[in-house]
Design a protein that fits this description.
The complex is a heterodimer of chains A (360) and B (197).
Chain A (H helix, E strand, L loop, with lengths): L1 H15 L5 H22 L1 H22 L9 H50 L7 H22 L3 H27 L7 H18 L2 E6 L4 E6 L2 E7 L21 E9 L9 E4 L4 H12 L14 E3 L13 E2 L2 H10 L5 E5 L11
Parallel strand pairs in A: 1-8, 6-7
Antiparallel strand pairs in A: 1-2, 2-3, 4-5, 4-8, 5-6
Helix pairs in contact in A: 2-3, 2-4, 3-4, 4-5, 4-6, 5-6
Chain B lengths: L1 H18 L5 H21 L1 H22 L7 H51 L5 H29 L3 H33 L1
Helix pairs in contact in B: 2-3, 2-4, 3-4, 4-5, 4-6, 5-6
Classes of the chains: A alpha+beta (360), B mainly alpha (197).
Chain lengths: 360, 197
Amino acid sequence: MLLPLLCIALFLLPIACQTAPLADLARADADTERARREGGDKYAPEELAQAQEALQSARRSVTLQSVRPEFRRDYHEANSFLQRARFYTVQARRLTQIRREAALHDAQDEIAKLRDSLSRSQEIKRFLTPRDPSIHRLLIGAGVDLEVAEKKMKEQDYPGALEVARTGTGRVREVEQQLLSSMVKFTSHPDIPSWSQWIDDALRQSRSRGEVAFVVDKLRRRMTVYRSGKVVKIYSVDLGLGGMERKMRSGDDATPEGLYKIQEIRGPGQTRYYRAFLLDYPNAQDRRRFEEARHNGLIPQGASPGSLIEIHGEGGRDKDWTKGCVALTNREMDDLAVLARVGTPVAIVGYNPKDDRVPW
Amino acid sequence: MKRFWLGLAVLALVLATIACAKPPQGDIDAAKAAMDDAQPTAEKWASTEWQAAQSSMSSAQAEIDAQNQKWFKNYDKAKELLAQAKTNAEAAKAAATTNKETAKNEATTAIADATAAIEAAKTALAGAPKGKDTKADLALFQQDLDGLGTTLTEAQTAMQSEDYNTAKDKANSIKEKAASITDQIAQAAAKKAGVKK
């Protein structure tokens, strides 16, 4: 009687006993490890942590079951944790792939943006003078940022590259904003009526004589040649080191603003700068302003208003470098030499309100 | 007959000892402590060695899991694997310390080189011929050098926050730019000297 019962019990025992999910545990462990190696700890840290926690719980559960009699072991909880671990591992791997791709593209885009803005800043640099130190510092920093970001891209540190490139584009944006705001100030400058008047006077003289007039727009670093009041040609010019500053006295390296006339024309061999048109600076207005400034203590008593302001050659350097003159290339001076006469009116203004073209 | 019972008793005792073998908790704790100790630095500074340590710890854990399920448990292999995991974790920590120190030294050298390059450029600038034609260029070089000086401060800040790679990369870039300025000054001086002749 007992023997058949024993046989049935022995037959049922293995069926009743569950097998520990050791292979699943090892596979889940390997998958989690792979997810980490693929960058999960960087791109999907929360999901990876969840997977690891579930894996630990599964392992704990298996260990707990192992101390129970074999026929009483129950691995449902362990399997449930394993399922959870698998879910989060898959999530971590998928998110890692998506986020890595996104980080790669974002970093590439940001670096391209930084490269573009730095290349654009070469044009902006044209409007800077050494007297804008903060702007130079920002541009130098942005250049270093670009190189560091490119290095990080090569090392596949996309989030790092993105962060550095963003810092760089931020710096260039700040430069643009600073420059733009300083330029916008000129659109409401108190001297605009005088500047307009000088331009109108120069063009009137040009029309009445049927000859040329030159209008130098300091803000845009441009000189426009008019004949009989109509635009003939536009040139880029280099100004004095003072850039937009208005000339106050000798040695300030600033380009004066006023309505002048060509006083003397010098050809090759007669000037250091290939060709030169000497202007009648300082005119009566310049002298009056100089005296006022000296009287108000704005300039030293021993100073003079300066002289020898010319339109000359050896320019085309894409920067402000003269001591207050207006410089063009030698070829351009050859063109102008055909048009210029003693007495040709030259209006030098801070900003031409009639010109609506942006400087860069 | 008496000898038979004695043999049976010894066999039963041996089987009971094997069957009742406990997981090597001391070895597990030691290996885990070594892993915990290594993790903060090894993850960042010795990722390959850290992965090897993690892999051996996983193997040890799998072996323990497997033995836990058996009637006749034998943790000898698990002990070996745990010892291996501990050794690997210690090696990862040591490699991390070395690698971190190397990165720190490289960054320190790069910053020193960049500082020297800026100083060399400043010296070249001070001795550069001055005139109307060069005044603007020299002033711009001075601004560029000031900018590089500011960026060097950023590299030093990265160094202080133990971001040695960024510190090194920034310093190298600064060094190249400063050297380029020195070259340009030398070229300008040579050109000016040529004109004088």
